[in-house]
Amino acid sequence: MIVFGLTMTLVRFAPAIGADVSADSVKPDIAKVIEQRQQEIRKMSAAMKVVGRFLKNEGATLAEVAAGAEIIRGVAGVMGTGVLFPPGSAVGVDRSAARAEIWEHPEVFKEQARALATAAGHLAAAATAHDIATVRTRAAAVSGACAACHELFRQKLP
Amino acid sequence: MSNHRTNRAVFLPLLLLPAFLLPAFLLSVCLLSVCLGLGVAPAMAGNRPDPVAEQVARGKYIFDAAGCLGCHTDEQHGGPALAGGRALITGYGTFYTPNITPDPIYGIGSWRVAAFFRAMRSGISRDGTSLLPTFPFTSYAAIDDADLLDLKAYLMTREPVARPNRPHELKDPFMLRLMMPGWKLLYHKEGPLNTNPYRSVQWNRGQYLVRALGHCGECHTPRNWSGAFDESRAFSGARRSEGGEWAPNITPDPETGIGKWSDADLLLLLEIGLLPDGDVIGGSMAEVVRNSTSRLTLADRKAILDYLRAVPPVRSGP
User: pTM for the full model?
Assistant: First the structure.
């Protein structure tokens, strides 16, 4: 499901930061892209919420943590391609919270996304291995990767 | 028979001699080793705690709890750790944090303990100039002697960086420094926090962490016209500068503060920066979590919570 959704995104919303698709092949509908990427980001938040529930002993299972981490890894991978961030979708357009620095420093942005995908992969592995102590430290790494990216590229909206 | 007796009388002391000589010999070797500083046995020496290393380790914990790294490192521009230069934008202008590496010229490498204590507690630099309250000496003034000594010991183990301090860009630096002695008379109290005997050890530890080491009030407590804490609204949220970041209300007010947050939510926030809705904490607090609260022990995070749960609730929002 994730793969299908992401493939459709790649087809519909290229070009963007570093996307391997010709720039004049498709003109993105900016409002829809913003909506799409915010949906993807909400999926990551929902997944992290499950991770948090596990860490707080509020009923979430390790299997749910692993599944959530895989969702984060998938979305972070797509964010790294830049297809969800076409030029012209920065703060000021619709409800975009994406700062202009994303387009000014695309390599840094991609690196942040890669770091998040890697951290989420490690979290998924620890959860699959039922290694609870490691789940805790790796969840912290995922949270830290989210925060590091937000610090550089997200505009906090009122 | 008589010969046999004679033989026994002669040989018995000779036979027993090693039994006396061996312990005496071993004792002598031990005493000689100690005198020569060789240690009795290498294995025992290896297990002996190293007081300097222990002090540095304690200092590292104080360093983290006090959040020194974030302010004294210009991370945004790739500045070296603790070499200063980070811009702090306030209503009084822009402050650039100083170099606190052990560099003897540009850092604090040649500062004696008394100078370090005076800066931390009285807000007076080694050259006698008044430090401005952007440096949280009003909070650090309550850090106890042992913790300050440990902190200094740790700082002296860091990499020295020969980088000069950048001058502040203040609206009226002359007036600000001129006013400092009077300001301190009115608002600055040196010395330990009042221990509350009716509260638990954990609550008192929390008070020390929140008010002294963690200096939480520096961001979360609003200030009066002169820039001093408004203690009647302690921890009720504040904005450092016009249009700047809002540091939220962390009093137990249920509507605008942390009253409705569970202990588990707050502890996880301090540990990994995760909010109950799955988002992560942003702004300056992300840095505080990364460099400070995530590195505290669980007992200390609980102590912080214990203290904050007991401060008077204040209704106040951005």
Answer: 0.82
